[in-house]
């Protein structure tokens, strides 16, 4: 089973294509949702047309991911409707976009939200509005059905992703010892969601070393335990433990109650939340609108899109913060914002492949795979009989420098990634090629902020989150961690600052 990413990718297009038999079933597909061409116009400082028309609106939200949508939701929920949200892509949602075919909807990236704890009051308020939380009870149909997770290791399946098969007594001792350490951190209250509610200088030293170095200091040398810690970092941060702040690695395991039920999920993943928000926001959302410049004025700010100048009193900058130096005049370059490149793919299956006797699960992971496995969109279906489904396949390009992996994403064609995905899957599902009819691939060069060593307590990041002028930042990358609750928190906070300035 073990196959490192370097060796895996080193197979090359020709070798991978050579694995395909000429007689096998033809698989259709393409790259979808590509937006890097527009992003590169900003990167390369391209010339854009001068404004020919002016539109005056008190508040402009830049970016239609969860942060921007949450800011818009708060504004409308408080009765303020005189704003516009500008989204570069044709579909809003950012990492919470979704797709749909004739038999199911499916996610393009984020596919669940952990059941929010008591401190995540904005998320709980949103879920009450959306009917997910009713009278203090979570709607059962939105909680992940069982079996939730499975891991393939040593030629067999086990329930759950934390390895439980083939452990030595030393492995078990280290798993238990680390679990106790995380429990103590949990009790300390320093690791919360949202992050800002518990951040304490007492834990600052943990941000100065990598998670892998901290594990070594704790005497952890179990191979299976190190695999699991690396899997967690790749899954939430798109990074290896060696490239992750120890503070962030500990946060993954110590910020939530271990016995919480959940997670909350839908066939289209967090796209379900995006859909409900778009229904509420309606005409305030404008897609296909790439902002190319923002200037501060005496009474606010001007936002330039195509040949239009939006003159506003306030701008909520909910797009990824790394874009700020390219959009805002005289904005300094950023040093503490590192982003992880990802690849996701949706595989249309005409039938379920052989799973060696195991019952299908919502989330499936393979030990030692360079990928993160897949989720099954039809797992949440209430249908009694299911033949066709869509698997959403996740691959964080975590090994090596992010810039090199971004280049790899662009250099390799669709056929290469199709073969790489099938090659990974068929090590467990031997007949996968006969089951799949279509593979669509989405490339995200800057998919999520990476909590690198020193980033959580970065003064640069915290300074931007504290800004209280005419331009307010609101992306989840202000937390150094790219999860739903952080994006929603910053979006709502920015909206509330704007409302306070407008109305007192």
Defining key terms:
5-stranded parallel beta sheet, 504 residues, 32% helix, Guanine Nucleotide Dissociation Inhibitor, domain 1, alpha/beta, 8-stranded mixed beta sheet, Polyamine Oxidase, Chain A, domain 2, globular, FAD/NAD(P)-binding domain, 16 helices
Describe the structure.
It is a single chain. By secondary structure, this protein is α/β, with parallel strands linked by helices. It folds into three domains: 5-37 and 103-116 and 139-145 and 338-449, Polyamine Oxidase, Chain A, domain 2, CATH 3.90.660; 50-96 and 268-337 and 452-503, 3-Layer(bba) Sandwich (FAD/NAD(P)-binding domain), CATH 3.50.50.60; 168-254, Guanine Nucleotide Dissociation Inhibitor, domain 1 (Orthogonal Bundle), CATH 1.10.405. The protein is 32% helix and 20% strand. The chain contains 16 helices and 21 strands. The strands form five sheets. It has an eight-stranded mixed sheet with strand order 1-20-16-19-18-17-9-10. Strands 11-4-3-15-21 form a five-stranded parallel sheet. The N and C termini lie far apart (61 Å). Residues 13-20 have low confidence and may be disordered.
Please summarize what this structure is.
32% of the residues lie in helices and 20% in strands.
Beta-strand proportion:
15-25%
The CATH superfamily label of the largest domain reads FAD/NAD(P)-binding domain
Contiguous low-pLDDT stretches (5 residues minimum) are 13-20
Overall outline: globular
User: What does the main sheet amount to?
Assistant: 8 strands, mixed
User: What is the tally of beta strands?
Assistant: 21
Mean pLDDT: 93
Read across the widest sheet, the strand sequence of neighbours is 1-20-16-19-18-17-9-10
Q: Which structural class should the secondary elements be placed in?
A: alpha/beta
Helix content: 25-40%
Q: Radius of gyration, Cα only, in angstroms?
A: 23 Å
Summed up, the helix count is: 16
The total domain count is 3
- Cα-to-Cα separation, first versus last residue: 61 Å
What's the CATH first level of the largest domain?
Alpha Beta
CATH topology of the largest domain: FAD/NAD(P)-binding domain
Q: Which architecture of the largest domain would the CATH scheme give at its second level?
A: 3-Layer(bba) Sandwich
């Amino acid at each position: 089973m073990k196959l490192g990413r370097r060796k895996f990718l080193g197979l090359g297009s020709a070798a991978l294509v050579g694995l395909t038999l000429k007689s096998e079933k033809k698989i259709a597909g393409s790259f979808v949702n590509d937006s890097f061409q527009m992003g590169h116009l900003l990167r390369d400082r391209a010339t854009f047309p001068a404004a020919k028309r002016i539109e005056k609106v008190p508040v402009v939200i830049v970016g239609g991911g969860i942060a921007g949508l949450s800011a818009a939701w708060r504004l409308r929920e408080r009765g303020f409707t005189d704003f516009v949200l500008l989204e570069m892509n044709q579909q809003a949602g950012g990492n919470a976009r979704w797709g749909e075919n004739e038999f199911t909807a499916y996610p393009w990236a984020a596919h669940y939200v952990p059941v929010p704890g008591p401190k995540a009051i904005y998320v709980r308020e949103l879920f009450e509005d959306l009917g997910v939380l009713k009278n203090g009870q979570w709607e059962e149909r939105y909680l992940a059905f069982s079996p939730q997770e499975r891991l393939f290791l040593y030629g067999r399946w086990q329930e759950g992703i934390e390895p439980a098969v083939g452990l030595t007594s030393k492995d078990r001792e280290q798993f238990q010892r680390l679990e106790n350490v995380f429990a103590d951190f949990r009790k300390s209250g320093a690791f919360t969601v949202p992050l800002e509610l518990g951040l304490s200088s007492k834990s600052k030293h943990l941000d100065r070393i990598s998670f892998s170095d901290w594990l070594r200091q704790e005497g952890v040398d179990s191979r299976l335990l190190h695999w699991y810690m690396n899997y967690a970092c790749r899954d939430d941060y798109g990074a290896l433990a060696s490239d992750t702040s120890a503070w962030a690695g500990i946060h993954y395991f110590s910020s939530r109650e271990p016995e919480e039920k959940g997670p909350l999920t839908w066939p289209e993943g967090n796209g379900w939340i995006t859909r409900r928000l778009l229904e509420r926001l309606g005409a305030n959302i404008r897609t296909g609108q790439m902002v190319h410049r923002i200037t501060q004025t005496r009474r606010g700010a001007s936002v330039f899109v195509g040949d239009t100048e939006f003159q506003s009193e306030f701008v909520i900058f909910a797009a990824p913060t790394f874009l700020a130096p390219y959009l805002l005049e005289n904005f300094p370059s950023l040093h503490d914002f590192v982003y992880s490149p990802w690849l996701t793919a949706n595989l249309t299956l005409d039938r379920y492949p052989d799973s060696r006797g195991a019952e299908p699960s919502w989330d499936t992971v393979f030990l030692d795979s360079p990928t993160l496995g897949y989720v099954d969109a039809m797992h949440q279906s209430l249908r009694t009989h299911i033949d066709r489904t869509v698997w959403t396949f996740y691959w964080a390009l975590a090994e090596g420098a992010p810039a090199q992996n971004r280049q790899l994403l662009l250099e390799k064609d669709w056929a290469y990634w199709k073969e790489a995905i099938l090659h990974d899957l068929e090590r467990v599902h031997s007949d996968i090629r006969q089951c799949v009819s279509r593979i669509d691939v989405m490339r995200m060069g800057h998919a999520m902020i990476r909590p690198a060593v020193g980033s959580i307590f970065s003064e640069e990041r915290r300074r931007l989150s504290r800004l209280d002028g005419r331009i307010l930042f609101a992306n989840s990358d202000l937390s150094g961690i790219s999860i739903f609750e952080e994006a929603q928190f910053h979006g709502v906070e920015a909206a509330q600052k704007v409302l306070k300035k407008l109305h007192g």
